[in-house]
Amino acid sequence: MNDIWTNRLSEYLDGELDSAEQAALEAHLATCGACYATLGELKHVVARAKALPDTPPVKDLWAGIRAGITPAQAAVTARPPVRPSARRFAFSVPQLLAASIALALLSGGGVWIASRPQATKAPDTVLLPPSREAAVRQVVWTRNTDAAIADLQTALTQNETKLDTATVRIVRQNLAIIDRAITDARVALQKDPGNAYLNLHLADTMRRKVELLRRVNAMAART
Amino acid sequence: MFATLAAATLLSLAPQRQTDTIIAVPAGASLSVNNFGGGITVHGWNENRVKVHGETGRRGRVEVSLVGNTVVVKTGSREGAPSVIDLEISAPQSMALTLSGTYADITVDGMQGAISAETVNGEVNVKGGKGIITLQSIQGGVTLADASGRIEVNSVNEDVELTNVSGEIKVETTNGEVMLSGIQSSSVDAGTINGDVTYEGTVTDGGSYSFGSHNGDISVSIPERANVTITTATANGDIDASFPLPLTNTTGRHRKTFKIGTGSARMELESFQGDINMRRPQEMRDRIDSKRHEHDRDNDNDNDNDKDSDSDTSFSAHWDVNNAAAYAARYARAYAPAYAKTYAPMYAQKYARAYSRAYSHIQINPQIQVNPRIRVDTASH
Known about the structure:
Strand order of the largest sheet of chain B: 7-8-10-11-9
Order of helices and strands of chain B: HEEEEEEEEEEEEEEEEEEEEEEHH
Radius of gyration of chain B: 27 Å
Shape of chain B: elongated
Number of helices of chain B: 3
Shape of chain A: globular
Structural class of chain B: alpha/beta
Order of helices and strands of chain A: HHHHHHHHH
Number of strands of chain B: 22
Distance between the termini of chain B: 32 Å
Number of domains of chain A: 2
Largest interface: A-B, 37 and 44 residues
Strand content of chain B: over 45%
Oligomer: heterodimer
Helix content of chain B: 10-25%
Largest sheet of chain A: none
Number of helices of chain A: 9
């Protein structure tokens, strides 16, 4: 996720790299499993997103949105004409993390959740609202990831009897360690909400929790 | 406690059975091994066949078959709870390995192919391997040495150590240390939550390196002629280098960027609570050696100084005589309930009869008021 090419992958998918950059990225993909895997995940995200129907909004929201973004111009600018265009998906690093978490859940942990008798809310972190405010995006992202974590924790609680008690104890200790790290990051973020490092650190720590829960749930499923 | 001791005793008294199977393998064949509890040890050799030696106990069994192009080794039990089985396998060096267990220690040496090894409560120790190498444990430490390829190594509650490894490397644990030494790579991503991260290896032009921890220190070696842009971030720690470091940018309160040479490689060093240390390679090697000696002394004295006071962590030790007690206790805990369930019905009546005969001379004084909830059956005496 920290590869220098990571932020160029969505441009690559959209065909927006020039030929030299494209060649360089493709050469890099041949040797970098992380980027290759991320590209695969991105393709899945885009494919899923493209598969969603274009549902028109129940009322015209553009005026309000426009007013919120540029209040001075809103009164004199007409709504831009709507034209059908291909969906374009550009991802920031937190969004990539969110997408990879969501896909991990959908492909691995999601199977576990889906196989449970109780209906659970599927995490909807794949399609993040195209907000211009990083802080808003972060709030939405963490809220959705929290929901996904809650689902996975419920699954773990219901199925931990399938695992050795010592293993369950160790896993819970490690989840507690991650929780403390998440709390630390959140407290720091409250004091410095725009800090890129803290935002990424929180995102990465939450990803670790999701991955640990997913791994343990998958292990219980195999037992 | 009683169940644990009983199970440990039963295990130690169980007669050991041995099985040996040799199977010829076609070129390009792979090996898949699943062993619930015990050990999986694979040695590479120069023959085109696989030899499987199993120490199975009385009830254990080992099945070896060729399925398509894969030699499949499975273990099981003839009855009751899963058996503890130690497998020692010799395989062609180029064979790809898929090894899995639950209470299993996994050891591999002398192999030159892809390796996938996964256990829950046990160590994974691999020496050799090429291609895609994926090693995982939950409760045990993971080590990899003298390997190359696309490497992914994970633990949860223990340390991860890579030595003399080249290729693309991704390492993660939660409650443990990450130690990387003798690394040759242009892509390294290593992180933990609760532990230090140490890196001694190449910093290649155009490469990408990321090291992170929440509660530990990050220590990396920067070769003198490296061309690297280093971004450091720490919320509560210090940044220290044993050589002059030109600061090129500061972003916010926590992030600093340094450019060395042309800065073509990218390196991110991040720790929330810990310090960030940049050292020259020799200095770093000295520190790693010193750390290893400390660790060795700790092992010799059997004085666990790991971060977690949980005694379980000491179970992920190498199998040798010194660790016999820990080994027995570990498996006793794993199997005690199942063994108790199996042996209680089998032996309860026998012991009841034997003891009732042994103590039949004791006369019960009819004047003694017997607790009405205790049944005394004198008919069989």
